[in-house]
Amino acid sequence: MIHISNTKQIDHMHPLPSINRGTKVSFVNRVQISGHKHFAINYLHRPSPTIYTSIGVTMRLRRAARIILVGAPGVGKGTQAERLLQRFPQLSAISSGDLLRDNVKNRTPLGIKAESTIKSGSLVPDAMILRLILHELKTRGWLFPTSTPTMTLASSAISASPFEYDTDSYVEQPSLAEASSPPQTSEDPSASFILDGFPRTVEQASQLDSLIPINLVVSLKTPASVILERIAGRWVHAPSGRVYNTTFHAPKVAGLDDITGEKLTKRPDDCEETWRTRLKKFEETSEPLLEHYARRGVLWEVQGNSSDEISPKLYQEVAEDVSYLQGFGAWRGWWERGGFASHRRQFTLYRLFSFLFF
Fold it and tell me: Is 159 annotated as a binding residue?
């Protein structure tokens, strides 16, 4: 047993003690961070790495996970999102594009306004997309209003709930982020979701941050040559959306869908020239976006040449951040990713008790 009770200053010259993976650990760490109150961390043992590669295993979340996957076109975000939903049953998928289409189809007040905007050739305003997401979370019971905020427009000030469908007021140029009292997000594990399609820019991320705090952003990295090879062999069944690949997931009969027997087609944008154009646009917007989330301490990068290589790493990251299956490595990973980077030199360790059980 090792007992440490002395007080010492911790900064970049005095890193926290490291413990090898697999070591059973139980400790309480009290730290004062620039006026913030103390926090406590209690960890047990790190699970076996084989659990992340095992098929059919599901994991339970210990708190709400609000996840965003970021990656170049063709990297496999859709595949990884589907696998996360299977591995962590408490997760749900929320797609800004699907929400927009559903509202247009159902002729909701917001859908009518969005349809008019689209038909005029204009882009759907960020505030409209954000309102869609807020309304969806509120409908599911995952978002609660704390008070009635005041939103200021260029011409006048109005008071409205963040959940009301006052389309004329916020579509012009509302700033939901300026609400005097932002809504409260549920931390119940069942209120966990993967957000798809939003945000794509730093500006969108900043608006989202003030209303829905994202706690895990994963950047998926695959070499361009691998993605191009994947795109070249990709075939789709348009009616169902089923995707095949002649390299690693070929249809039973070449050119035909396994279920219906109907012909498979190529996506119009599945060519190198189109992909490189999309990649350039993605890089221009994603680099600032990733830097934004890195500063917030919620960014993690996962690299791999295939979906099967990426998935176990992705499971492990989610498990260590928001799952019951977490060990000391989760806290160590948080520190290595920069955790409280701006406050490191101001850390004061008042008391640290560390007990190692072998």
Answer: no
**Domain chopping of the chain, boundaries:** 57-143+183-222+303-322
Q: Is 26 annotated as a binding residue?
A: no
| Structure tokens that stand for 112 in this block | 């009518």
124 labeled part of a ligand binding site: yes
Structural tokens at position 145: 């209003």
123 marked ligand binding residue: yes
Just give the CATH number of 57-143+183-222+303-322.
3.40.50.300
> What is the chain's pLDDT, residue by residue, as a tens digit (358 residues)?
333 333 333 344 444 444 344 433 333 333 333 333 333 333 333 445 566 666 677 888 889 999 999 999 989 898 899 999 999 999 999 999 899 999 999 999 888 998 988 888 888 898 899 999 998 999 999 988 765 444 443 333 333 344 444 434 443 444 554 444 667 889 999 999 999 999 999 999 999 998 899 999 999 999 999 999 988 899 999 999 898 988 888 999 999 999 999 999 998 888 888 999 999 999 999 999 999 999 999 999 999 999 899 999 999 888 887 765 433 333 444 444 444 443 333 333 323 333 333 3
234 is in an annotated binding site: yes
pTM of this structure: 0.66
Q: Left (φ > 0), alpha (ψ -120 to 50) or beta: where does 160 sit?
A: beta
56 is in an annotated binding site: no
Tokens of 344: 């490191």
Q: What is the CA radius of gyration of the chain?
A: 23
Q: Answer for the pair 158, 172: CB distance below 8 angstroms, yes or no.
A: no
